[in-house]
Design a protein that fits this description.
- This protein has one domain (about 5-20, about 30-145): 3-Layer(aba) Sandwich (Rossmann fold), CATH 3.40.50.
- Helix content is about 40%, strand content about 15%.
- It has six helices and five strands.
- Strands 2-1-3-4-5 form a five-stranded parallel sheet, sandwiched between helices.
- Helix 4 links the parallel strand 3 (about 75-80) and strand 4 (about 105-110).
- Helix 3 runs parallel beside helix 4.
- Mean pLDDT is about 85; it is low at about 1-10 and about 15-25.
Length: about 160
């Protein structure tokens, strides 16, 4: 997808990503949780994360994210704000309450500066507005991950 992503291009890329699931095992790569209740976007963003040299764990909501955080520490969490069940805002609050210093990249389709400021005040490390390009997302991820936890094979963003 280009740096200026359009909803049509994002939908087409989502359909392509869903039709060609990743089969390569990457158990030893640094883990990133991709939390979004939209299956298509979760799959697409997860593929971008995988392609950047991480192991994306795709989770369909805040409850699943918090349950897995009790067992595994990712190098970052990419978190949609508006989800059914536990919202991204509530999920971020819980992550910070238990004092996890995992970088959280919050994403939403709403272009509202008040929401961005609120998320940063709550502890989000970065705030991205959908649709987001692959390049922007990967750069954000690489900028927020602790340098010692970066994957050993980081390809240049497309």
């Amino acid at each position: 997808m280009t740096a200026t992503a359009s909803p049509v291009a994002a939908t087409q890329e989502c359909q392509t990503a869903a039709a060609h699931p990743r089969t390569e095992a990457a158990e030893s790569w640094p883990t990133v949780f991709v939390v979004d209740d939209d299956e298509c976007l979760r799959s697409l963003v997860g593929d971008w994360v995988d392609d950047a040299g991480f192991r994306a764990v795709r989770l369909d909501g805040g409850e699943a994210c918090l349950a897995l955080l009790a067992l595994e520490r990712p190098v970052a969490v990419i978190l949609d704000l508006h989800m059914s069940g536990l919202s991204g805002v509530e999920t971020l609050d819980f992550i910070r309450i238990v004092d996890l210093d995992v970088p959280v990249i919050a994403m939403t389709g709403e272009c509202d500066p008040a929401i961005a400021l609120d998320m940063v005040d709550r502890g989000a490390d970065e705030f991205l507005i959908k649709p987001v390009s692959r390049t922007r997302l990967v750069r954000s991820l690489l900028a927020n991950v602790v340098p010692g936890r970066l994957p050993s094979r980081v390809p240049e963003p497309a």
